[in-house]
Amino acid sequence: MEQMTDTRLADQLCFSIYNTNRLFAKFYQKALEPYQLTYTQYIVLLALWEQNCQTLSDLAKELDLASNTLTPLLKRLETAGWLTRCRAENDQRQLTIQLTEKGKEQKSAIEKRLEKCMNEQVAINVDQYDRMLKDNQRLMEGLKDYLASTQEKFE
C-alpha cells in the first residue's frame, strides 16, 4: 500500500467522511420533509421494514443506539402514526415495536422519493451507489476490526 503522507485537511479521508455525513443529514432532512421524518426516524423505519415487530433492545442493538436515545424517537413516530409500541404478553418488561399500516404503506413512496432525489439532485446512479456502499462497508469493517484488536491489547 502506498504511504499516505499528505496531512492537508482537505486530503484527509476522515474529514471527507465527516463532511459527507453532515451533508447526508441535510440531504435526508430535505428529502424526507414531505413525510415529516428525521433521518434517525427514517433509519428506525428502515430497520422495521427489514424486520417488523422487534423488541426495543433488539432495535437499539441493530441501530447502535442507546434505548434512552431510541425511546423518545419511537414515541414521536408512534404519535405520528408510523408505529406502535406495546408490552409483550409473556414479559411485561419487554417493549415490542411494530409498524402501523401507514408505516408499511409509505415504504414504497419514501423509497421512490429518496431514489429520485439521489439520482436527480445528487447525480449518483445505482452502480456508483453500490460501489460507494461496498467501499464504505469495507472501511467500516476494517475500523471495527482495528478497534476490537486494540481494545483487547489495552484491557
What is the 3D form?
globular
The CATH topology annotation of the domain at 9-104 reads as Arc Repressor Mutant, subunit A
Spans where pLDDT lies below 50 across 5 or more residues: none
Strand content: 5-15%
Mean pLDDT: 91
Keywords:
155 residues; mainly alpha; Arc Repressor Mutant, subunit A; three-stranded antiparallel beta sheet; 7 helices; 3 strands; WH-like_DNA-bd_sf; DNA-binding transcription factor activity; Transc_reg_Sar_Rot_HTH; transcription regulation; HTH-type transcriptional regulator SarZ
What does this structure look like?
There is one protein chain. Helices cover 66% and strands 8% of the residues. It is mostly helical. The protein has a domain at 9-104: Winged helix-like DNA-binding domain superfamily/Winged helix DNA-binding domain (Arc Repressor Mutant, subunit A). The protein has a three-stranded antiparallel β-sheet. A hairpin with a 7-residue loop joins strand 2 (83-87) and strand 3 (95-99).
